[in-house]
Amino acid sequence: MASESCMVPADSSAASSVCVDQASTKTTTEPLVSIIDTSSNTEIDGRVNLNQAWQAAYVAANTTDDNTRRYPLVADDIAFVPGTSIGYFSANGAMRGPIPTRV
């Protein structure tokens, strides 16, 4: 293992230690939005992956593929303009300023 992390289990009858190779551990987080009808507790067709939506918008606008593109890495809240279906997301580690997202 390249970057080993080991611990001794609390159960003494178990293995003497458990090890994980942290160097090969990868995680993926995608900002997904599902639309739920709260009157019937059902999901409405229209699920959106915000990274895919922004990628498509950047390509359609011929935005240079460099570090000026911003993506909502970890969307953590949404607020709607009253009486509309326009929503604004806040996200960690993504933007220098607000980027409106229409859902």
Largest sheet: 3 strands, antiparallel
> How do the SSEs run, as a string of H and E?
EEEEHEEE
Low-confidence stretches: none
Shape: flat
Give an overview of the whole structure.
With 103 residues, the protein is mainly β. It has one domain (29-102). It has one helix spanning 50-60; strands spanning 4-7, 18-21, 32-37, 42-49, 74-80, 86-92, 101-102. The strands form three sheets. It has a three-stranded antiparallel sheet, with no helix packed on it. It has a two-stranded antiparallel sheet with strand order 1-2. A two-stranded antiparallel sheet has the order 3-4. Strand 5 (74-80) and strand 6 form a beta hairpin. The termini are far apart.
Key phrases:
flat; 1 helix; single chain; 7 strands; about 100 residues; mainly beta
